Amino acid sequence: MTETATETATATPKRPPGRPKGYPRSGGRARGTPNKKNQVTRDYVIKQGAPLAFLCRVVRGKRFTAAAQLGDNKRTYIYPTLDQSLRAAEILSRKVLPDLKSTELTGKDGGAVALTLLDFLKGLPA
């Protein structure tokens, strides 16, 4: 055999070209769909850990059982500090209350805002 015949026999075939540019993507998970593993983990933490209930107990200053050593029958309780209670209240408030955004009000052409009460006063009984 010649050298050219062995080179073509051992060479891997060339891959066909991929999808042309501009064609839509097909297949796969839709954008925004949560990963199944992440969803299962999230559900487990919410069900078993009850993070919101825990934070509420910290805010109220309820006592917690401290981690005891093996074989120790004596229970030890700890209470959350003021800093821990404030931090838990901060986290809870972010979950419940919307974020406030500052907006600047300006009038026509960036000037002061003009208020007219005439239209409002017309609707009031005399």
Q: Could you name the key traits of this structure?
A:
mainly alpha, 126 residues, 41% helix, 5 helices, flat, single chain, two-stranded antiparallel sheet
Average pLDDT works out at 77
Number of helices: 5
Helix amount: 40-55%
Main sheet attributes: strand count, strand direction, barrel closure: 2 strands, antiparallel
- Low-confidence segments: none
| Shape category | flat
SSE-based structural type: mainly alpha
* Number of extended strands: 2
Span of the ends, CA to CA: 113 Å
Tell me what portion of residues adopts beta-strand conformation.
Answer: under 5%
Report the order of strands and helices.
HHHEEHH
> Rg from C-alpha positions?
33 Å
Spatial strand arrangement across the major sheet: 1-2
